[in-house]
Amino acid sequence: MRPQPAVNAFALKIAAIAGMTCNHIANVFGASMPEAPTVALYMVGGLTFPIMAYLLCEGYRHTSSVRRYAERLALFAVISQVPYSLLFGGQGNVLITLLIGLGLLRVLDCGNNALAKGAAVIGGVGLSFFCDWGIVGPLLIVLFWHLHDRPRGSALAMTVVALGLGIPALSQAVADPTPVTLGALGYYTVGFGAATVLILNYNGQRGRPMKWFFYGYYPTHLLALWALTLLL
User: Which residues cross the membrane (predicted)?
Assistant: First the structure.
Protein backbone atom coordinates (compact mmCIF):
# COMPACT_ATOMS: atom_id res chain seq x y z
CA MET A 1 0.00 0.00 0.00
CA ARG A 2 1.37 3.38 -1.01
CA PRO A 3 2.20 5.57 2.03
CA GLN A 4 0.22 8.79 2.40
CA PRO A 5 2.04 12.15 2.14
CA ALA A 6 3.19 13.24 5.58
CA VAL A 7 4.04 16.94 5.12
CA ASN A 8 1.42 19.43 6.31
CA ALA A 9 1.27 23.21 5.93
CA PHE A 10 2.90 23.73 9.33
CA ALA A 11 5.95 21.71 8.27
CA LEU A 12 6.16 23.61 4.98
CA LYS A 13 6.08 26.94 6.81
CA ILE A 14 8.83 25.85 9.21
CA ALA A 15 10.98 24.80 6.24
CA ALA A 16 10.32 28.14 4.53
CA ILE A 17 11.22 30.09 7.68
CA ALA A 18 14.43 28.09 8.16
CA GLY A 19 15.42 28.59 4.53
CA MET A 20 14.62 32.30 4.60
CA THR A 21 16.72 32.82 7.71
CA CYS A 22 19.67 30.91 6.24
CA ASN A 23 19.46 32.80 2.97
CA HIS A 24 19.37 36.19 4.66
CA ILE A 25 22.29 35.29 6.94
CA ALA A 26 24.30 34.34 3.84
CA ASN A 27 23.32 37.55 2.05
CA VAL A 28 24.18 39.77 5.01
CA PHE A 29 27.23 38.05 6.50
CA GLY A 30 28.45 35.73 3.73
CA ALA A 31 31.33 37.99 2.70
CA SER A 32 32.96 37.53 6.12
CA MET A 33 32.18 33.81 6.51
CA PRO A 34 34.10 30.72 5.32
CA GLU A 35 33.13 29.48 1.87
CA ALA A 36 31.55 26.13 2.78
CA PRO A 37 29.06 27.45 5.38
CA THR A 38 28.09 30.29 3.06
CA VAL A 39 27.34 27.91 0.19
CA ALA A 40 25.41 25.61 2.55
CA LEU A 41 23.29 28.51 3.81
CA TYR A 42 22.42 29.51 0.25
CA MET A 43 21.45 25.92 -0.55
CA VAL A 44 19.02 25.80 2.36
CA GLY A 45 17.76 29.22 1.32
CA GLY A 46 16.51 27.73 -1.92
CA LEU A 47 13.67 26.12 0.02
CA THR A 48 11.95 29.37 0.77
CA PHE A 49 10.26 31.07 -2.14
CA PRO A 50 8.91 27.96 -3.90
CA ILE A 51 7.22 26.92 -0.66
CA MET A 52 5.89 30.43 -0.04
CA ALA A 53 4.54 30.64 -3.58
CA TYR A 54 2.90 27.23 -3.29
CA LEU A 55 1.32 28.04 0.07
CA LEU A 56 0.02 31.32 -1.34
CA CYS A 57 -1.90 29.33 -3.96
CA GLU A 58 -3.18 26.98 -1.26
CA GLY A 59 -4.16 29.94 0.90
CA TYR A 60 -6.03 31.56 -1.97
CA ARG A 61 -7.81 28.31 -2.73
CA HIS A 62 -9.02 27.81 0.84
CA THR A 63 -9.40 31.31 2.29
CA SER A 64 -12.82 32.51 3.35
CA SER A 65 -11.94 36.09 2.39
CA VAL A 66 -9.43 37.06 -0.28
CA ARG A 67 -9.79 40.68 0.82
CA ARG A 68 -8.69 39.95 4.39
CA TYR A 69 -5.87 37.75 3.08
CA ALA A 70 -4.65 40.64 0.92
CA GLU A 71 -4.99 43.08 3.82
CA ARG A 72 -2.78 40.92 6.04
CA LEU A 73 -0.13 40.65 3.34
CA ALA A 74 -0.27 44.39 2.68
CA LEU A 75 -0.04 45.30 6.38
CA PHE A 76 3.02 43.18 7.05
CA ALA A 77 4.59 44.13 3.72
CA VAL A 78 4.51 47.76 4.89
CA ILE A 79 5.81 46.86 8.36
CA SER A 80 8.61 44.74 6.89
CA GLN A 81 9.77 47.23 4.29
CA VAL A 82 11.79 49.39 6.70
CA PRO A 83 14.01 46.60 8.10
CA TYR A 84 14.20 45.02 4.64
CA SER A 85 15.43 48.29 3.13
CA LEU A 86 17.97 48.74 5.92
CA LEU A 87 19.50 45.39 4.94
CA PHE A 88 18.98 45.12 1.20
CA GLY A 89 18.23 48.53 -0.25
CA GLY A 90 15.16 50.01 -1.84
CA GLN A 91 13.53 47.08 -3.65
CA GLY A 92 10.23 45.73 -2.38
CA ASN A 93 10.24 42.84 0.07
CA VAL A 94 8.91 39.36 -0.69
CA LEU A 95 5.52 40.02 0.91
CA ILE A 96 4.91 42.61 -1.80
CA THR A 97 5.80 39.97 -4.38
CA LEU A 98 3.31 37.60 -2.78
CA LEU A 99 0.66 40.34 -2.70
CA ILE A 100 1.15 40.91 -6.42
CA GLY A 101 0.85 37.17 -6.97
CA LEU A 102 -2.37 37.06 -4.95
CA GLY A 103 -3.80 39.85 -7.07
CA LEU A 104 -2.91 37.98 -10.24
CA LEU A 105 -4.60 34.82 -8.98
CA ARG A 106 -7.75 36.81 -8.25
CA VAL A 107 -7.79 38.35 -11.72
CA LEU A 108 -7.06 35.07 -13.49
CA ASP A 109 -9.62 33.20 -11.44
CA CYS A 110 -12.50 35.67 -11.64
CA GLY A 111 -12.03 37.73 -14.78
CA ASN A 112 -13.76 36.85 -18.06
CA ASN A 113 -11.96 39.23 -20.39
CA ALA A 114 -8.85 37.58 -21.84
CA LEU A 115 -7.37 40.94 -22.82
CA ALA A 116 -7.85 42.30 -19.31
CA LYS A 117 -6.28 39.17 -17.84
CA GLY A 118 -3.27 39.51 -20.12
CA ALA A 119 -2.87 43.18 -19.22
CA ALA A 120 -3.10 42.34 -15.51
CA VAL A 121 -0.41 39.68 -15.82
CA ILE A 122 1.89 42.02 -17.73
CA GLY A 123 1.28 44.80 -15.22
CA GLY A 124 1.81 42.56 -12.22
CA VAL A 125 4.97 41.02 -13.62
CA GLY A 126 6.28 44.48 -14.51
CA LEU A 127 5.59 45.78 -11.00
CA SER A 128 7.29 42.77 -9.45
CA PHE A 129 10.49 43.66 -11.33
CA PHE A 130 11.15 46.11 -8.49
CA CYS A 131 10.57 43.53 -5.73
CA ASP A 132 12.37 40.58 -4.19
CA TRP A 133 12.39 37.66 -6.64
CA GLY A 134 11.57 39.98 -9.53
CA ILE A 135 9.42 38.72 -12.38
CA VAL A 136 10.11 35.09 -11.48
CA GLY A 137 8.00 35.39 -8.32
CA PRO A 138 4.54 35.95 -9.84
CA LEU A 139 5.35 33.67 -12.77
CA LEU A 140 6.04 30.75 -10.41
CA ILE A 141 2.83 31.52 -8.50
CA VAL A 142 0.81 31.48 -11.73
CA LEU A 143 2.50 28.24 -12.83
CA PHE A 144 1.64 26.56 -9.52
CA TRP A 145 -1.95 27.71 -9.90
CA HIS A 146 -2.46 26.55 -13.47
CA LEU A 147 -0.65 23.23 -13.06
CA HIS A 148 -2.20 22.31 -9.72
CA ASP A 149 -4.66 19.77 -11.14
CA ARG A 150 -2.11 17.98 -13.29
CA PRO A 151 -0.27 14.92 -11.97
CA ARG A 152 3.05 16.18 -10.64
CA GLY A 153 2.12 19.67 -11.84
CA SER A 154 4.06 21.29 -9.00
CA ALA A 155 7.20 19.43 -10.06
CA LEU A 156 6.70 20.67 -13.63
CA ALA A 157 6.36 24.26 -12.43
CA MET A 158 9.53 23.91 -10.35
CA THR A 159 11.42 22.32 -13.24
CA VAL A 160 10.58 25.18 -15.59
CA VAL A 161 11.80 27.80 -13.13
CA ALA A 162 14.81 25.77 -11.96
CA LEU A 163 16.04 25.33 -15.52
CA GLY A 164 15.48 28.98 -16.34
CA LEU A 165 17.49 30.12 -13.33
CA GLY A 166 19.80 27.15 -12.81
CA ILE A 167 21.42 27.08 -16.25
CA PRO A 168 22.71 30.68 -16.00
CA ALA A 169 23.79 29.97 -12.41
CA LEU A 170 25.74 26.91 -13.58
CA SER A 171 27.46 28.97 -16.26
CA GLN A 172 28.46 31.63 -13.74
CA ALA A 173 29.67 29.07 -11.20
CA VAL A 174 31.86 27.36 -13.79
CA ALA A 175 33.28 30.65 -15.06
CA ASP A 176 33.87 32.16 -11.61
CA PRO A 177 33.49 29.68 -8.71
CA THR A 178 33.01 32.04 -5.76
CA PRO A 179 30.87 31.40 -2.66
CA VAL A 180 28.14 33.57 -4.18
CA THR A 181 28.04 31.83 -7.57
CA LEU A 182 28.37 28.35 -6.05
CA GLY A 183 25.73 29.27 -3.51
CA ALA A 184 23.38 30.43 -6.27
CA LEU A 185 23.89 27.13 -8.09
CA GLY A 186 23.10 25.21 -4.92
CA TYR A 187 20.11 27.46 -4.31
CA TYR A 188 18.50 26.55 -7.63
CA THR A 189 19.46 22.87 -7.57
CA VAL A 190 19.68 21.50 -4.03
CA GLY A 191 17.31 24.04 -2.48
CA PHE A 192 14.72 23.90 -5.25
CA GLY A 193 15.01 20.11 -5.35
CA ALA A 194 14.35 19.81 -1.62
CA ALA A 195 11.42 22.24 -1.88
CA THR A 196 9.94 20.15 -4.70
CA VAL A 197 10.15 16.97 -2.62
CA LEU A 198 8.42 18.66 0.31
CA ILE A 199 5.67 20.12 -1.88
CA LEU A 200 5.03 16.79 -3.61
CA ASN A 201 4.62 15.20 -0.17
CA TYR A 202 2.16 17.84 1.05
CA ASN A 203 -0.97 16.18 2.40
CA GLY A 204 -3.27 19.19 2.21
CA GLN A 205 -3.65 19.42 5.98
CA ARG A 206 -3.10 22.59 7.96
CA GLY A 207 -1.24 21.21 10.95
CA ARG A 208 -0.52 23.60 13.82
CA PRO A 209 -1.83 27.11 13.06
CA MET A 210 1.02 29.64 12.85
CA LYS A 211 -0.30 32.30 10.50
CA TRP A 212 0.52 35.23 12.75
CA PHE A 213 3.87 33.77 13.80
CA PHE A 214 5.07 33.73 10.20
CA TYR A 215 3.86 37.25 9.50
CA GLY A 216 5.53 38.51 12.67
CA TYR A 217 8.73 36.52 12.19
CA TYR A 218 9.52 38.08 8.84
CA PRO A 219 10.06 41.71 9.96
CA THR A 220 11.40 40.63 13.36
CA HIS A 221 14.23 38.51 11.96
CA LEU A 222 15.11 41.24 9.45
CA LEU A 223 15.35 43.77 12.27
CA ALA A 224 17.46 41.35 14.33
CA LEU A 225 19.90 40.81 11.44
CA TRP A 226 20.19 44.56 10.91
CA ALA A 227 20.94 45.03 14.62
CA LEU A 228 23.66 42.37 14.37
CA THR A 229 25.30 44.29 11.52
CA LEU A 230 25.65 47.22 13.91
CA LEU A 231 27.23 45.07 16.62
CA LEU A 232 29.62 42.94 14.54
Answer: 12-33, 39-57, 73-100, 120-143, 155-174, 180-200, 212-231
